[in-house]
Amino acid sequence: MSNFINQILQSEKTLAFPIMTHPGIEALGKTVREAVSDGEIHYQAIKYISEHFDTIACTSIMDLTVEAEAFGAIINLPEHEVPSVTGRLVNDLKSVGSLEVPTLDKGRIPQYLLANKLAAENIRSKPVFSGCIGPFSLAGRLYDMSEILMDIYIEPDVVNQLLEKCTEFLVNYCRALKATGTTGVIIAEPAAGLLSDDDCMMYSTVFVKQIVDAVQDDNFTVILHNCGNTGHCTNAMIASGARALHFGNAINMEDVLKQCPENVVVIGNLNPVGVFKQGTESSVRKATQKLMTETAGYKNFVISSGCDLPPFVPEENIRVFLETVKSNNV
Amino acid sequence: MSSELLTKLSECVEFGKINLASPYPPQMKGLPGADEITKEALESGVTPGEILNDALISAMNKVGQKFSENKIFVPQMLLSAKAMGASMIHLKPFFANGSVQRKGVFILGTVFGDLHDIGKNLFGMMVEGAGWEVIDLGIDVKIEKFVEAVKQNPTAVVGISALLTTTMVNMKPVIEAIKAISPDTKVIVGGAPLSSDFAAQIGADGYGKNPQEGIVWLDKLTA
Asked: Which of A19, A225, A325, B123 has the smallest CB count inside 10 Å?
């Protein structure tokens, strides 16, 4: 049992762990483009979050393009929004076969490793979690998401070969993230939520588990995030072996908590847009209280946003969320 | 004979059997798919209207229903839509010469600033499968492009998609521009961060939480 997981399971209080870095980027007066391109700015944003919000841990930026970029994918880098992958890097057995597993000096990977290293070395008040994309979500970005969703049935050998290469890279990347000294890694695998439980098991869990087996230990916790799961592929998430699972707002947390083993930490799931970004102080308070009431009694529950908070969430809404958690714990 | 072919075609679309070469679904491996059966049906005298209404639309309706009930998932839905597309290719000439009427024209695009297309594509395929002609304007579609498409298709319904919280706000000026030149044009919006409240706030006439909801809304317009 890892120290981080122990701390949660032994706590008498409900702990708060919203996934966020954008409030830090905005408070520094920086753009998203600057933060995802420069490890020092990225680190400063994490540091701001760690110092200004009473959360159990903080995270690096949930950027689901940095790994695809390392493979050679073309990235669109808007100034104020998280980057996205454009085009299709591979499309058949030949192109997948000749795809090289990149080394960790490609694209923005060195800047991400720098941000994690600086955060782990300098943020002492709370744990810092690294982040990376999950293997199926990465493969979808390299192959085209619609096409990979169909080709798990039409060209399964091609998809599996691509998943093996993605996993090899992610294992290497997560080992390097672990070496920076962070407490763990959040593996974001939203695309696997588009699959049935059986397909999620076959085309995501099998590969996520390889990463988990390679890096998870008492000092390094894997949190598997799948905000696409509406309740249909929770078994596949549990089977990954990750000690913590993070769920999106489309799922019923009470149902999830009944389904998950007591020693697996379950994290979620207030709507990052409807509650945090578009909500009022009153609606944030109400939604937070409602979720805490529904999940009361589950010691393995951690309250969080259902996904990474998007840019330009009112800081006051985050404060109201944290204050509500605190006051409900009394 | 025609009834048997229409049943077979409907099954191909419902279960995602695109053509003879496709190995999916496993229980139909080695059998002709929507491509070959449509061709055979037309050659044997089945009318394009029967193919569209009695096989494709009914099959895609079942697909949408199963998806909304979590009985199938996005991959199966995409394969069904692809099978429908393989059949539809053979019907295009009949649409072009007017011998088969569709329910209407649906203009679709991802709002400007947003490059995501999976939700838009999925919905477009479902709308086509529901019997509409779909004009897909693509991704990152500027206001002027939507307006121009409405001018050229004044009776069309418009669908706007967004995946990002920073781009969903761009839907409002698009709707305002469309309504300014064509107040009666109906607009439906969809995308992961949206809600029915947000859709109402920006002046959309409809909101599709999932493809099937969108299809139901569209069908009400033609009822």
From this structure: A325
- CATH number, domain of B61, equals 1.10.1240.10
How many Å separate Cα B64 from the centre of its chain?
11
For residue A175, how many other CB atoms are within 10 A of its CB?
14
**A7 Rama sector, left if φ>0, alpha if ψ -120 to 50, beta otherwise:** alpha
Interface residue of B166, B170, B194 to substitute, partner A, most A CBs within 10 Å:
B166
Reading phi first (left if > 0) and then psi (alpha if -120 to 50, else beta), residue A162 is in alpha
Closest B-chain CA to A197: B73
ipTM rounded to 2 decimals:
0.91
B73, B96, B119 — which closes off a domain?
B96
Architecture of domain A3-329: Alpha-Beta Barrel (3.20)
Domain match, B89 and B118 both = no
Please report which confidence band the pLDDT of residue A275 belongs to, taking 50, 70 and 90 as the band edges.
very high
Whether residues A310 and B164 touch (CB distance < 8 A) is answered with yes
Q: Which of B79, B116, B166 sits opposite A153 (nearest CB)?
A: B79
> Tens digits of per-residue pLDDT, A228-243?
999 999 999 999 999 9
- Chain B hits for A149, CB-CB cut-off 8 Å, are 74-75, 78
Q: Do B73 and A232 touch (CB under 8 A)?
A: yes
Cis peptide bond prior to A317, omega within 30° of 0? no
Same domain, B70 and B112: no
The partner residue sitting opposite A146, judged by closest CB among B25, B72, B121, is B121
A121-153 burial code (b ≥16 CB/10 A, e <16): eebeebbbbbbbbbbbbbbbbbbbbbbbbbbbb
HEC assignment per residue over A199-211: HHHHHHHHHHHHH
Query: Which of B54, B76, B96 corresponds to the end of one domain?
Result: B96
| Cross-strand pairs, B135 | B107
For chain B of 223 residues, list the mean pLDDT of each consecutive stretch of 10.
Answer: 90 97 96 98 94 92 90 94 94 87 93 86 88 93 97 96 87 97 96 90 93 90 83
Looking at the predicted structure, is the pLDDT value of residue A1 above 70? no
In chain A, residues with a C-beta closer than 8 Å to the C-beta of B118 are: 145-146
Reference A141, options A71, A80, A236; nearest CA is A71
> How many structural domains comprise chain B?
2
> Which SS3 state, helix, strand or coil, does residue A180 take?
coil
Region label for B191, one of left (φ > 0), alpha (ψ between -120 and 50) or beta (otherwise):
left
Alpha carbons A318 and A109: distance in angstroms, whole number: 29
